[in-house]
Amino acid sequence: MEIEKILNLISTYTHTDYGKAYFFKNVKMYKDLTELDREVNISRVFFDMAIKGTLKDLYGLSYIPSIMEKISNKESVEGREFRKIGEFLEEGYAIHKYYSGINDLLTDKLSDYKPLLELKDHIFKVFTPEGEIKDNASIELKRIRNGIDTVKRQLNIEFNKIKSKYIKYLSLDQPVERNGRLCIALKSENRNVIKGITVGRSDSGATLFVEPDTIIELNEKLTDLFSQEKNEINRILSNLTFELQKNKFKIEKNIEIIEYIDGNIAKARYAKDMNAVFTQPHTTKKILLKELKHPLIPKEKIVPIDVELDRNGMIITGPNTGGKTVSLKSIGLAFFMAHSGLPVLALKAEVPFIEEIYTDIGDQQDISQNLSTFSAHLLNLKNILENVNEKSLVLIDELGTGTDPIEGAALSKAILKYLLMKGSIIFATSHLSEIKTFSLEEEKLLAASMSFDIETLKPTYKLMVGVPGASHAIEIAERLGIDPQIVEESKINLNEEFSQSEKILSRLTSIHNEYEESLERIKKKEKEIDKMKKEYEEKLQKLKKKEIESLEPELYQLKEQIKNMRNQIQTILKEIKQKKDQIDSQEISKKLKESENMASQLEEMRKTLSQNQKGRKIEKSKIKVGMKVKTSNNIEGTVKRVTNSKITVQIDGSPIEITYNPTEIEPVINTDKEKNEEKRIYVKIDQKKSVKSELDIRGYSVNEAIPEIEKFISDLISSGIKEGRIIHGKGTGKLAMGIWDYLRKSSLIKDFKIARSEEGGTGATVIEV
C-alpha cells in the first residue's frame, strides 16, 4: 500500500530529524482500542493547536542520537558534542514544559521526560558554546591556567630583554616554539653570542633555534603546567562522560518524547494542510469514508470516492485503468492511518476496529522461486487464509485472475465464502462475471464499480456503490487505437449471453450516472436555496435591527421615567421610616397610597419596557459562550458551554445545566443598574400588625418566594427593623441562589449574608435593610 511513501510525505512537515525518526521508529497499528483512542485524542489536541496557531516549533533543536551512540560505545566525544547534549537538554526541557502544560492528556503522556537540569548546568559550566573548555570548569584547572598565564608573562619579559640586547643577531623579533619549548631564532653565524641549548635549525640552515639558559627553568615550569592542564581536563571529561553514561537511558527517553512531539506536530500540520481528519475506530462493522482520497495522488488529479458499507465486504468491478486498485489502496490506507493515529484523507471517516491488514495487491511473480503470477497469488492467499479472523481487513486485487476464468471464479467464490465465514472485512476487485453475480447474490457482500463514460470511452474514476460494472475491454481497446477490424471481430466473438449481461451492466451504469448527475443538480439547487434563505434572513435581521434602533429614544425616555418614579417611592418610604412616630396614621395612609399608585405606574412602565426590549432579543437570539443570560425563574448568569439543546450557565461560581428554550432563557440586555430599575417594588404597610423579623419560605419556588420577600422587606422598613432572617432551607440550593440573586439587585437591601450555624447556617439568609 506504499505506506513508507506516505510516512515520508507526512515527515516532510517536521522541523527536526527527531520528527522524521518518529515516523519510521514509532508509527504502528495499535492493537489495543483504549491505547488507540488515547493516541487519536492526543493527535486531535495537536490538530486543534495547529488550527489555532498555537503550535510551538522545534526549529534548531540540537540533534544528539549519534553522540549518544558514541557514549554508549565508549568512544571519545569532542567538546562541541558535549555542548550539543547540554543544548538539547535546555531546549528539550522548554519544549516539554510547553506541551505537557497544554492539558492532562499530554501531561500524562509526556510524564517520563526527565529535565536533568543539573547535568545541563554542569555541561554549560565546563564548555563554551564553541566547545572549548572554560577556565572555571574546575578550581584546579583555573589555578593551573592562571599559573600558565604567569609563566608566559615571565617568558615574554625575558624574551624582551634578550631582544633589546641582541636584536641584530636575531632572525626574528618574536619567540618561536620548538618541541613544546619557547626559543629564539638566532642567525647561525652568531651562535656563540647567546648561551643556551640548540633545539633545531631551519631548512636552509641560516637560522638556529636556541633555548637561552635564562628561560630554561621557565620552560620547564610551563611544560609541567601544560601536563597538569591535560591531566585535569582528562579528569573533568572522564567525570562528565561517566555522568552522561549514568543518565544515558533518561536522555534516550527524552529523545523519544521529543520525537513524539515533533511527529505529532507534523501530523497536525499535514491534516490541516490536506483537510484530513483524525478518527477513532469503533466496535461495529459500519464503514463510512466520505470523499476519500489517496495521499500520493496530486490534489489537481485526484477524484474522491465515497465508501459506505454495513456488511462484511465489497466487490469492486469495472474497467481496467478505471481506478479499482487505487480505490482498494485508498481504503486500506484509511484503515492503516486510522489505526496508527494518523490523519485520514477524507471529509469524514468511520471505520471498525481491526488488528491486522492483509493484502494481495500487484504482481507477485517470483522468478527466483520459479513462481508464476497465479502461483504467487495463491501462496499469498494461503498465508492470509491461515491467519485471518473477525478482526482482520483483507484487500485482494484482481481476484481470480491469472488462470482459466471458470476455475478462477470457482476458487474465488470459495475464498470469499471462507473469509465471510471467518468474519473478516473484505474489499476485493475483479473482472470475472461470476464474481459480479456473486456480489449481488451474497447478502453479506455489496457490489460496487468504477464508473465508465460510454460516450467518451473514458473512465471517470468514481466509485458507484450498489452497482457491479462492466469491464469494457473492447471499448478500451477501441479507444487505445486497436485496429477497427480486430475490434469488430471481438464484438462478434462475444457469446450472446455474455454480451447481453455486459449490456445490462452498462445500462445500470448509465442509469446510476444519470441518478448521480440528478442528485448533484439537486444538491446544487439546495445550496442555492440555502444561500438565498441566508441572505433573506440577514436582510430581515437588518430591518428588525433598524426598527429596534428607531425605538431607542422611546426606550430611553421610559427608563428615565422609571428611574424618577423609583426615586420618589424611595423618598416616601424613607420619610415614613424616619417620621413614623411624628405623623398620624391618616398621613401615613396617604403617603402609602401615593407610593402604591407610583408602584402601580412603575409596574406598567416596566411591562412596556420589557415588551420593547423583547424586540432586541431577535438579533441576539443565538445563545453564545460568554453571553449574560436570564432563565425563566429570573436567575442570571454567564453561558459557559452550548451543546446541542443544552446550555450550561455559570451562576455564583456553580454551573447548572438548563435545557435551551426561547421561553426559558434569553440574553440579558440591560445593565445591572437598569435591571434594578425594572424590578417591581411591593409597597404595603399595615401599622396595626406586629411585624416579625423572620420569614419562612421553605417549600416555595423562586417565583413564589420573591413576592413574599418583597412584602417582608417593606414590613421591616415600615417598622424600623433593620435586620431580618429568611429561612429557605438547604435542599438543592436553587431557591437560595434565586433569593440571593434578587437581594443582590434590590436597592432596599444594604447587605445580606448566610446565617450563623446556630441560626440555620446555609439554610437561612440574614438581611440588612
Automatic annotation (TrEMBL):
Residues annotated as coiled-coil are 505-612
Specify whether Nucleotide-binding is a keyword of the entry. Answer: yes
Tell me if DNA-binding is a UniProt keyword of this record. Answer: yes
- Which UniProt keywords are given for this protein, alphabetically ordered? ATP-binding, Coiled coil, DNA-binding, Endonuclease, Hydrolase, Nuclease, Nucleotide-binding, RNA-binding, rRNA-binding
InterPro entries linked to this entry? DNA_mismatch_repair_MutS_C (IPR000432), DNA_mismatch_repair_MutS_core (IPR007696), DNA_mismatch_repair_MutS_sf (IPR036187), MutS (IPR045076), MutS2 (IPR005747), P-loop_NTPase (IPR027417), Smr_dom (IPR002625), Smr_dom_sf (IPR036063)
GO BP, one annotated term: mismatch repair
Q: Which domain of life is it from?
A: Bacteria
Enzyme nomenclature, EC number: 3.1.-.-, 3.6.4.-
Q: Which residues form the Smr domain?
A: 695-769
Question: Mind telling me which SUPFAM superfamilies this protein's record contains?
Answer: DNA repair protein MutS, domain III (SSF48334), P-loop containing nucleoside triphosphate hydrolases (SSF52540), SMR domain-like (SSF160443)
**What is the top EC class of this enzyme, as a single word?**
hydrolase
Residue positions binding ATP: G318, P319, N320, T321, G322, G323, K324, T325
One term of GO molecular function: rRNA binding
Similarity annotation: Belongs to the DNA mismatch repair MutS family. MutS2 subfamily.
- What function is annotated for this protein? Acts as a ribosome collision sensor, splitting the ribosome into its 2 subunits. Detects stalled/collided 70S ribosomes which it binds and splits by an ATP-hydrolysis driven conformational change. Acts upstream of the ribosome quality control system (RQC), a ribosome-associated complex that mediates the extraction of incompletely synthesized nascent chains from stalled ribosomes and their subsequent degradation. Probably generates substrates for RQC.
Task: Name the PANTHER family on file.
Answer: OS10G0509000 PROTEIN, OS10G0509000 PROTEIN-RELATED
Subunit organization: Homodimer. Binds to stalled ribosomes, contacting rRNA.
> Which named protein is this?
Endonuclease MutS2
Name its species: Petrotoga mexicana DSM 14811
Task: Report the gene name.
Answer: mutS2
